[in-house]
Design goal:
By secondary structure, the protein is of the alpha/beta class. It is built from 17 helices and 17 strands. The protein has two domains: 294 residues, Rossmann fold; 127 residues, Isoleucyl-tRNA Synthetase, Domain 1. The strands form four sheets. Strands 1, 2, 3, 4, 8, 13 and 14 form a seven-stranded parallel beta sheet that branches. It has a four-stranded antiparallel beta sheet with strand order 6-5-7-9. Helix 5 packs antiparallel against helix 6, helix 10 packs across helix 11 and helix 16 runs antiparallel to helix 17. Bound molecules: 5'-O-[(L-methionyl)-sulphamoyl]adenosine (MSP). The site of 5'-O-[(L-methionyl)-sulphamoyl]adenosine has 20 residues, from strand 2, helix 1 and strand 13. Keywords: Aminoacyl-tRNA synthetase, ATP-binding, Ligase, Nucleotide-binding, Protein biosynthesis. It is an enzyme of class 6 (ligase).
Length: 482
């Protein structure tokens, strides 16, 4: 890749409720890549954006239900969301809120550009709307009960209202070319095919404002003060707000959006058309991940199976949650997670795996009194295979490769039995020194490699193995007690 600046984004979460582990997964996926880029490029050129989507019907209704002002409600939820992702050590550079004053101004200006370009016109919308998706629906998109397949318990709304429409259909051929020629990369491949299939059915223009008398909670449309911007024509622009404010929305920056499968269409088909209309740079890549279920069920409040990321962090530590979700999360297909599986993985890969390897190595090197050169952590010691997996954003596969290296070193220790060398009087013979040196070098490499996944443990191991002699310390991942 020739671009040397990076803008990495996640979807911004609705504020109808505090985020759960499913939402957090996406932040971790983006965080791992941001950390990897900072390790392999100039760290100051990496910008990682996340935040909250605060306008629109769902947020307003949630506030009404609580009997407090919408502003008060979204502020509270936004702060709680931020605390959740902080608990996971997500290293964002900005936590944007769509109520931030710079965004409110920039979104209105963006919309005005589309107006100036002749892509916005007044019309009447008569049709169906799913408030949970904040999305217009056609009959063919509903299930056999006439409900939204993503929100089967929510009633579909019938809207008839005067709106301003965006001339989306005008961009049909532009979008086809963009995706077919991979000028915008849509990953994984299956999602790219899905987007192309949808596009080939034909795009219809969509409303991009809502009348204020129906929905006052939004950004006022600059061409008509009785309208607010439709929530997607506000939320998507958050990327441009933060990007342009940091001089990153240009062709020198590699722009990648991480999103879930339910909102791929907005990012792959609407967002590039909006940018083209307003005359701005397009993103390079949209990575679409699957959904996480819990014990075989969709995670939802009504099912009562919501787990907050911080609950897991309190019990197992941020690194363990990060590792489990990054390695076993829904990076391509939907996956099921469960606490028993998490505990199994924790014990095998972290407590007995990495934790035990570091502990036994440090102990044997300390006993041998081995003296070595101080560590040089300036280069990220990835193999070409790891680099190739990172270039496809497959953090899960990188984790597999790193843990193979961990297992290989464990096997080497079992085979060479360094504790037997310690019993001999010649612990520092040339041949033995090779063993001590290999152990030192490999643990230092592993400490660097795991950093995008488990930054706290990485920092601890790096510090422990930084100097000329290595001292043992207490275990990194305590064994679980039932
Ligand atoms: N506000 C919109 C996004 C606007 S982006 C300009 C939205 N918000 S959301 O809160 O409903 O979802 C935020 C992100 O979390 C989406 O990418 C969504 O796909 C993802 N996930 C929500 N539930 C999830 C799982 N159970 N599993 C994995 N990701 C999940 O959509």
């Amino acid at each position: 890749m020739d671009k040397q600046k990076f803008l990495i984004t996640t979807a911004i979460d609705y504020c109808n409720d505090v985020i759960h582990v499913g939402h957090a997964y996406e932040k971790l996926l983006a965080d791992a890549l941001a950390r990897y880029y900072r390790l392999t490029h100039e760290a100051k050129n990496v910008y990682f954006l996340t935040g909250t989507d605060e306008h629109g019907t769902t947020n307003e209704k949630a506030a009404q239900k609580r009997g407090i002002s919408t502003e008060e409600h979204v502020t509270e939820i936004s702060q709680k969301d931020q605390a959740q992702i902080d608990s996971l050590n997500v290293s964002y550079d900005r936590f944007i809120r769509t109520t931030d004053s710079d965004h409110v101004q920039i979104a209105a200006d963006f919309y005005q550009k589309a107006v100036d370009n002749g892509d916005i016109y007044k019309g009447t919308y008569e049709g169906l709307y799913c408030e949970s998706c904040e999305s217009y629906k056609t009959l063919t998109e509903l299930d056999e009960n006439g409900q939204c397949p993503l929100h089967p318990t929510k009633e579909i709304q019938k809207y008839e209202e005067e709106n301003y429409f965006f001339a989306w259909s005008k961009y049909q051929d532009f979008l086809l070319d963009l995706i077919e020629s991979n000028k915008i990369q849509v990953l994984p491949d299956g999602k790219r095919s899905e987007m192309l299939a949808f596009l080939r059915e034909g795009l219809q223009d969509i409303p991009v404002t809502r009348p204020k008398y129906k929905l006052p909670w939004g950004i006022t449309a600059p061409n008509d003060e009785d309208h607010v911007l439709y929530v997607w024509f506000d939320a998507l622009i958050n990327y441009f707000t933060a990007g342009s404010q940091n001089n990153l929305w240009n062709d020198e920056t590699f722009i990648i959006h991480f999103v879930g499968k339910d909102i791929a269409r907005w990012h792959v088909l609407l967002w590039p058309a909006m940018l083209q209309s307003a005359g701005y740079q397009l993103p390079d890549t949209v990575y679409v991940h699957g959904f996480m279920n819990l014990n075989g069920q969709k995670i939802s409040k009504s099912r009562g199976n919501v787990i907050a990321p911080s609950e897991l962090v309190d019990k197992y530590g941020a690194d363990a949650v990060r590792y489990y979700l990054l390695k076993h999360g829904p990076i391509v297909e939907d996956v099921d997670i469960s606490i028993p599986q998490f505990e199994e993985v924790y014990t095998a890969d972290l407590a007995n795996g990495l934790g035990n390897l570091v502990a036994r190595t440090a102990k044997v090197l300390e006993k041998a009194g081995y003296q070595t050169k101080p560590a040089d952590y300036s280069q990220y010691p990835q193999t070409p295979e790891m680099e190739s997996r990172w270039s496809e954003y497959r953090a899960d596969q990188v984790a597999i490769l790193i843990w193979e290296k961990i297992r290989d070193l464990d096997k080497y220790i079992d085979e060479t039995k360094p504790w037997e060398l310690l019993k001999s009087n010649e612990v520092l013979s040339a041949e033995n020194s090779n063993v001590w040196e290999k152990l030192t070098v490999e643990i230092r490499e592993i400490a660097q490699l795991v950093e995008p996944f488990i930054p706290d443990a990485a920092a601890k191991i790096k510090a422990q193995f930084a100097g000329t002699s290595i001292a043992s310390t207490e275990g990194l991942f305590p064994r679980l007690t039932s």
